[in-house]
Specification:
Layout lengths: L23 H13 L4 E2 L28 E2 L1 E3 L5 E3 L5 E2 L7 H8 L5 H28 L4 H14 L2 H4 L24 E6 L6 E4 L3 H11 L9 H16 L7 H23 L2
Antiparallel strand pairs: 1-7, 2-5, 3-4, 4-6, 6-7
Helix pairs in contact: 3-4, 7-8
The structure holds zinc ion (ZN) (2 copies).
């Protein structure tokens, strides 16, 4: 994967993190807020007995596994970057790497052997598979029966129709802001944060999200422990600063601020259980 540009000129500028990189507490608060407002996507997972490569049967427009069954909100491009589409899941484009590439990187249980088998079967259809198996039997290939059995299992587990690459070539390629490549279809850079409890697709819509991704790419993890105190203090102060204080005269402001400090101090002590 090529290294991302240090700043993406096509994005709206950062407001929250314009002057300093987000702290670990900021990362946590920001990510939680974005998840709540659904601006960051949740990662699609399949309950047992489904496999990682099973298609999503309900709400397929919400799929976030990259290029999954050729329709997703997230795509892995041939350049190596992952991108999100603006809204609901869209079909893959000609510059998508495709589901197979994604499975290789995401699912250790998808072995090369199995992928090779899927490819062969996809390429040749049922008749091709029969011919393929018949050759093994005819030539008495060592372990042929085991391999046939394995292939059958793979066959039963998979709905090959869904795994076949079906890019929507007519609509054009996806743009990639990281490569500064312009395509007919709009896309946003993403960072897939798999660590719990966050587990989400960070969608880069502006400079603030980009600042978050840059920290995550350095390996910095959000810190949930300091969130409560800092958020509470900020929100109560902002509310009063925006509302009541502006109505008072300047002399009174000082007094109010002093009281506020006391209040927040008492509140903090309260939080600390004193
Ligand atoms: Zn795709
Ligand atoms: Zn790219």
């Amino acid at each position: 994967m090529s290294s991302p540009a240090s700043r993406l000129p096509s994005l709206p500028p950062a407001l929250r993190f314009a002057h300093a990189a987000p702290s670990r507490a900021d990362l946590h608060a920001h990510i939680e807020r974005m998840k709540r407002s659904r601006q960051y996507f949740s990662i699609t997972t399949m309950p047992a007995p489904f496999a990682a490569w099973s298609p999503l049967l309900k709400n397929a427009h919400m799929e976030t596994r990259a290029c999954h069954c050729s329709v997703s909100r997230v795509h892995l491009l041939a350049c190596g970057h992952r991108v999100a589409v603006p809204r609901n899941a869209e079909r893959c484009a000609a510059n998508c790497a495709g589901m197979e590439e994604v499975l290789k990187t995401r699912s250790p249980e998808v072995q090369d052997d199995m992928l090779a088998a899927i490819k062969k079967v996809n390429g040749a259809g049922p008749l091709g598979l029969q011919a393929y198996v018949a050759t093994w039997v005819k030539w008495n290939v060592a372990g042929a029966m085991d391999r046939i059995h394995g292939l059958r299992e793979a066959f039963n587990e998979m709905s090959f129709f869904h795994q076949r690459p079906r890019p929507d070539v007519a609509s054009g390629e996806f743009s990639c802001q990281m490569c500064e490549k312009k395509g007919l279809r709009e896309s946003l850079p993403v960072f897939v944060l798999e660590a719990l409890p966050w587990a989400c697709v960070v969608v880069v819509r502006d400079g603030d999200n980009w600042a978050v991704v840059q920290e995550l790419e350095k390996g910095v993890l959000p810190d949930p422990t300091v969130r409560k105190r800092s958020m509470k203090k900020n929100s109560s102060q902002n509310r009063i600063l925006n509302g009541r204080i502006t109505k008072h005269r300047v002399e009174e402001k000082k007094g109010v601020l002093g009281k506020l400090r006391e209040e927040s101090l008492v509140e903090e002590w309260g939080n600390m259980g004193l």
